[in-house]
Amino acid sequence: VYLDAATMKGLTPASEKHIKNETVKANNYLNTAGVSLRNVAYHLWNIKQELFSANKEKSRGWNAYLDSGALHCSKRFAQDLVGAHESWLGEYDGDNYLLAGLSPRSLSAMGAEGVTDKDRQKVFDEIQGNLSKVGKYKALSEANIRFLTTGQVKKASKKGSTSVPKEGDDLIKDLKARI
């Protein structure tokens, strides 16, 4: 683990070693968080498959399950993870820590119709690029991810979606300049 001079300033060798060890642990848990998201998506997908095979009316059992309160997450959260698993996440073999900062909604957006592995790689490249910007990390919103994968900014729906970046959004301007 590399820590720059500004971070190391005033630290004793013992403190320096402690911070490096804690950084390794934190990074390992970020990787674990990505693995956990993938595992949750897989197990929910597996449940959906079982419920679909047991019911003539395919979605009835799945929707009843999602509405049952058995899960410790919202219906939308579960649906988005399953959608991501079905469209791409089930086959993902990249770095798991890159998934840790993405919401199920964003993971689902990365599997939208027409989105390719190359498009998803743009998102992962952006995350890695942001991680390398010391002190300037900006998390990617669902709207930023949609822009990276489709080149379009989703318009607000009649229900009033608020996650749409404005054309003046610095990150959108930067992304447009690089695409």
Radius of gyration (Å): 20 Å
Strand content: under 5%
Give the % helix: 55-70%
- Which H/E pattern describes the elements? HHHHHHHH
The number of helical elements comes to 8
- Structural class, by secondary structure, is mainly alpha
Report how far apart the termini are. 32 Å
Please outline the major beta sheet.
none
Average pLDDT, all residues:
87
- Assign an overall shape: globular
Low-confidence stretches: none
Give a count of the beta strands, DSSP E runs of length 2 or more. Answer: 0
Topology:
Elements: H1 5-8, H2 13-54, H3 58-67, H4 75-87, H5 104-109, H6 117-131, H7 142-150, H8 170-178
Structural features, described:
- It contains 8 helices and no strands.
- Helices cover 60% and strands 0% of the residues.
- With 179 residues, the chain is mostly helical.
Descriptors:
179 residues, mainly alpha, 8 helices, 60% helix, 0% strand, globular
Brief synopsis:
By secondary structure, this protein is mainly α. The protein is 60% helix and 0% strand. It has eight helices and no strands.
